[in-house]
Design goal:
The protein is of the alpha+beta class. The chain has one domain. The protein contains 1 helix and 3 strands. A hairpin with a 5-residue loop joins strand 1 and strand 2 (about 15-20). The longest helix is centred in the middle third of the chain and has 13 residues, at about 25-40. It is elongated, with a radius of gyration of 12 Å. The model has no long low-confidence stretch (mean pLDDT about 85).
Length: about 60
């Protein structure tokens, strides 16, 4: 099971990250995992406003 998290960056783009976590994981924990992954990359700074993130869950079998 993993979560997909879309973060809005300062350049107006959305960056999507895959976070492996259980289905009952707290969204705040999933958000910070994605945020720190983005923050370590070469992309412009992402918004650290939790309400600006979009979350969805996928099972491994749902992968394309």
């Amino acid at each position: 099971m993993y979560w997909m998290v879309a973060l809005l960056a300062m350049d107006g783009q959305q960056y999507v990250y895959r976070v492996y976590a259980p289905p009952d994981a707290l969204r705040g924990d999933v958000f910070w995992a994605a945020f720190h992954c983005h923050d370590e990359g070469p992309h412009p700074r992402a918004s650290d406003v939790f309400d600006s993130a979009v979350f969805w869950r996928l099972r491994v079998a749902d992968r394309i």
